[in-house]
Design brief:
single chain, 504 residues, alpha/beta, Rossmann fold, six-stranded mixed sheet, 15 helices, binds zinc ion
Length: 504
């Protein structure tokens, strides 16, 4: 048997002003023939595909495996190039038996609102209906009808923080084997309730998301069901179809699959009020952290999460910490290549005043003048070892620990969501000894930080990854939708909008 594997993955924040060109994939992850060599023995989705397919004695046809850090629209050039790289080996392989992909599910390009649907349809047109296509999806996929129509099974992550990529890869590859051995005839159905969910309330081990997953797993226990996917959706994309989706695949029973998808959608709707975001204003959050007898208190800057396409140079929480004279704090991270250059040039031990952060757009706080001392300079390379680690190195680019009064600010060239404690340790900082840790992250920081945190406070700073969905100006999103059309639904929600005000 011959199975092609590949991935084109990007989470696109359509509110970002930063385009994602081909170079952003090259800088982050762009593999072709070297897919197998790179991932074999690691702990990522591709490793899972390789393990299962090799164990079955199947031949693996590598196509392209590419991802870029979340940001704004993917350029047409980048998308067309990557799609051509993916389809060429598929066209050239005679007697291809299956296609196994990882697509994020929330990519948007300059010309395509639903590029994943387009990728699946393009491949389907090449290989015809007899060859199965299975794709894994991120939990934040905005699933479309076109994706469901052109794939045989879609296998979404079951966890947020996403710690089950490898497991879902195994699941998807095993389903491919089952189909190819004639033991599964997938019938897939979807249901979209009229809801978009804040990412804050998509944490899968917390209420109310855990209730949806409990039902999903119960449905999966039925042997007639091959897979249940609860996709929380990615709300920072202004698309007609953004939001939560239930996808159920049965063994040759579309009615049953649809019935189960509807049942999950009904439960999500019933729980809708409990999905409303719950966040704390910056001054209140910092005051609580300072007053707390013990640390670390973790302050999450949900809105400036680079893992969701934010610039990672927002200044509101840093300014609040400095204004309120916080002590023994660390902030991870502010991505500001210009500031890094100035600090590196000054050298270790030097004290200077620079304009820091706030340079990408006007939505995350203005640049602030800060005075501090260069404590450490590093090449920004470290090997994560926490629950989200893939076995692959992380690269922050040139990195400086800049001590500004009581705050160690980690200033980097590249954007990074802090998901691993090795980030701090590689810079000589013991995170367990810090009173306050600020992370530019919505949820993924939890996997590594929850075990050491005395408390986690989710801060309502402004930004394009804000948990407060009423702050976003959607134009394409289908209406009415919960929780935006709250008057219609008779429910009150905070109406304040940071989009209407200058950020300074
Ligand atoms: Zn995600």
């Amino acid at each position: 048997m011959r199975v092609a594997i590949g991935s084109i993955s990007h989470e696109t924040n359509t509110f970002s002003n930063v385009l994602t060109g081909f170079n952003k994939f090259e800088e982050n992850l762009y593999l072709r023939a070297d897919i197998i060599m790179t991932f074999k023995g690691k702990h990522v989705i591709a490793s899972a595909f390789i393990n299962i397919l090799e164990a079955e004695g199947f031949e693996i046809i590598p196509t392209v495996w590419a991802s870029a850090t979340p940001s704004g629209l993917v350029t047409d050039d980048a998308y067309d190039h990557l799609l051509a790289e993916m389809t060429r080996p598929i066209k050239e392989t005679s007697g291809l038996d299956g296609v196994l992909l990882h697509l994020h599910g929330a990519m948007v390009t300059q010309s395509h609102d639903d590029p994943e649907g387009d990728i699946l349809e393009t491949i389907r047109t090449i290989i015809g209906n007899a060859v199965p296509i299975i794709s894994t999806l991120d939990l934040h996929a905005n699933v479309t009808e076109k994706m469901v129509r052109n794939a045989n099974v879609l296998v979404g992550y079951d966890t947020y923080p996403h710690v089950d990529g490898y497991d879902r890869g195994i699941e998807a590859a095993k389903l491919m084997v089952k189909i190819l051995q004639g033991n599964l005839k997938p019938s897939m159905a979807m249901k979209k309730p009229p809801m978009i969910l804040s990412t804050q309330k998509q944490k899968t081990n917390y209420y109310p998301m855990n209730v949806l997953f409990n039902l999903a797993h119960k449905i999966e226990d039925d042997e007639r069901i091959a897979n249940v996917t609860v996709s929380g959706g990615y709300p920072f994309a202004d698309l007609e179809f953004a939001g939560v989706t239930m996808v159920v695949t049965s063994n040759n029973n579309l009615t049953l699959a649809q019935e189960k998808a509807n049942q999950l959608a009904d439960l999500a709707w019933k729980l809708r009020r409990d999905f409303l975001a719950d966040i704390v204003p910056p001054r209140e959050a910092v005051a609580e952290a300072i007053a707390s007898p013990e640390g670390p208190i973790v302050l999450a800057d949900h809105a400036d999460n680079p893992g969701g396409g934010s610039p990672c140079d927002g200044t509101i929480i840093l300014k609040t910490l400095l204004d309120m004279k916080a002590e023994n704090a660390v902030l991870a991270v502010i991505a500001d290549p210009d500031a890094v250059n100035k600090l590196v040039k000054a050298g270790i031990g030097k004290t200077l005043t620079i304009k820091l952060g706030g340079k990408t757009d006007k939505l995350h706080g203005p640049p602030i003048n800060v005075t501090g001392t260069v404590k450490l300079i590093s090449d920004g390379t470290f090997l994560p070892n926490g629950p989200m680690s893939s076995g692959l190195e992380s690269h922050l680019g040139k990195t400086v620990v800049f001590k500004c009064s009581g705050v160690d600010v980690i200033v980097t060239e590249k954007r990074l969501q802090p998901t691993d404690l090795e980030l701090y340790r590689s810079l000589g900082i013991d995170p367990t000894k810090k009173k306050i840790i600020v992370v530019k992250s919505a949820v993924h920081f939890r996997a590594a930080h929850e075990p050491i945190a005395k408390k986690i406070i989710e801060v309502d700073a402004p930004g394009i990854h804000s948990a407060r969905l009423s702050a976003f100006k959607y134009k394409k999103l289908r209406r009415p939708i919960y929780p935006l059309d709250v008057e219609m639904l008779g429910i009150a929600e905070l109406k304040r909008s940071f989009w209407d005000k200058p950020s300074s």
